Amino acid sequence: MTIIKTKVDVNSQDYVDNRASLLEKLDIISSQMQLAIAGGGEKYIQRHKNRGKLPVRERIELLLDRSSGFLELSPLAAWGTNFTVGASLVTGIGTICGTECLIFANDPTVKGGSTNPYTLKKLARAADIATENSLPTVSLIESGGADLPTQAELFIPGGRMFKDLTQRSSKGLPTISLVFGNSTAGGAYIPGMSDYIVMIKNRSKVFLGGPPLVKMATGEESTDEELGGAEMHSKVSGLSDFLAEDEYDAIRIGRQIVSRLNYSKKGISRRTNNFKTPLYDIDDILGIVTKDPKLPFDPREILARIVDASDFDEFKPEYGTSLVTGWAEICGYPIGILANHRGVLFNQEAQKATQFIQLANQINIPLIFFQNTTGYIVGKDYEQSGIIKDGAKMINAVSNSRVPHITIVMGASYGAGNYGMCGRAYNPRFLFSWPNAKSAVMGKAQLAGVMAIVAKQSAHDRGIPFDEEANEVMRQMIEDQIENESEAMYLSSLLYDDGIIDPRDTRNILALCLSVIHNNPIQGTLGYGVYRM
């Protein structure tokens, strides 16, 4: 039998404590999400509405099919910085007239929707997702252009936006721009390079230089409408393809364009539409994840609440038991799973992972990595038994695997374990974190302790006394720094994940991601780098 039998006691004190801890973290994430939703604040939202304009998320809601959800990406970008949480941009995946699309929308209530360095990172990540997963793009534009005080960080790398857009077009992945307001200076090239452009009468303004700049550069007197108004571009320049009466009309036209794209998935369909839901309540996950990150939890209990029918066909269950591998389905899509159990990756775990990744590539099955690892084992015996060679095989396999990868950081993600379990640097199609996730080169106590040992040895080598008191102060400072920088919100603000998600939403989010990656045929790798045997 491959049905997972749960051993969770929902009445135990550990379960109750774990649940309370994770709910507390979810509340903190929710409060920060509210800041992103609030945009520029009530004053600027009201001013926006008084001008007869829809808030950015209402525009998105009207654009999407009523029955579909919206997977928002990187919502906490710029958290903890001087910029507004969310980076004045909303990005995500939603269904429009039955077609999955990548959507990005400026939030004009935040500095007029201007682009700052985090906005640029968020745009770049969204562009990667659109390209890798063959998604049409719909852009809802209303932006004042670059945030000028940070132009040095924007101007040169910002050119990538236009390159990405045109390259997607060359691959048959169109961009549809709905221009709700300003799209000026360099920003004018986003609609200018789009496949379809919708402008709104008396609202849209698209020009390289506005009246003041033109006056300074040429001495010419001109109006906004003459330089870049919607009617001028629709009737004179030909830049605009459709002239909308208002925002609702623009959204209607945008949906109509998507419906005419003749777009279809090229990958295989799900194995069945009559899939069975998990046998156990996904809400249980909150009590399964341990409050203390040093204490392991059995990933099978997580999988039992995520995969179809709680059916998990485990591969090599008696070998390399700190890593769980096996086959399952999520909403009818076949998947391979690698999930950390007791944190540390030993030689056997690395060998097992390498073989399993090869098998998934042989049969063209996507892989999902559930990270909760402190990294590869260290120590004299393990070094002599070849842990570097075995770890390198696993990282080689991950690096050269060509089936799509999705990563869920459900706990710790430390050291080279982050690499072997397909961290951000290894380009998973999607990577999401749970609120309890932590990631760093190593744990705070270990890192501070290593630095103390090095400092003590350095003092000894130089023949000077070691200051224990100063070292203790430094040790605490280092631990505090590492603790802060390893937190999920800090990492999410830097776009090291695609968002922090409620663990109870994991199954639905994975199902949407699997649907998206099947826009393309899945073909495993035909070769790997050199394995040091």
Task: Please give a structural write-up.
With 533 residues, the protein is of the alpha/beta class. It is built from 21 helices and 16 strands. A seven-stranded mixed sheet has the order 1-2-3-4-5-6-7, sandwiched between helices. Strands 8, 9, 10, 12, 14, 15 and 16 form a seven-stranded mixed sheet that branches. Strands 11-13 form a two-stranded parallel sheet. β3, α4 and β4 form a beta-alpha-beta unit.
Strand fraction equals 15-25%
Please, how many helices?
A: 21
Helix content: 40-55%
Spans where pLDDT lies below 50 across 5 or more residues: none
Descriptive terms for the model:
seven-stranded mixed β-sheet, globular, alpha/beta, 16 strands, single chain
Summarize the structure.
With about 525 residues, the chain is of the alpha/beta class. The chain is about 40% helix and about 15% strand.
Give the topology, please.
Layout: H1 13-38, H2 42-50, H3 56-63, E1 70-73, E2 89-96, E3 99-106, H4 117-132, E4 137-143, H5 151-158, H6 160-170, E5 175-183, H7 189-192, E6 196-200, H8 211-218, H9 224-228, H10 230-237, E7 242-244, H11 247-259, H12 285-288, H13 299-303, E8 313-315, E9 323-330, E10 333-340, E11 344-345, H14 347-362, E12 367-373, E13 375-376, H15 380-384, H16 387-400, E14 405-414, H17 417-420, E15 430-433, E16 438-440, H18 444-462, H19 468-485, H20 488-493, H21 506-517
Parallel strand pairs: 3-4, 4-5, 5-6, 6-7, 10-12, 11-13, 12-14, 14-15, 14-16
Antiparallel strand pairs: 1-2, 2-3, 8-9, 9-10
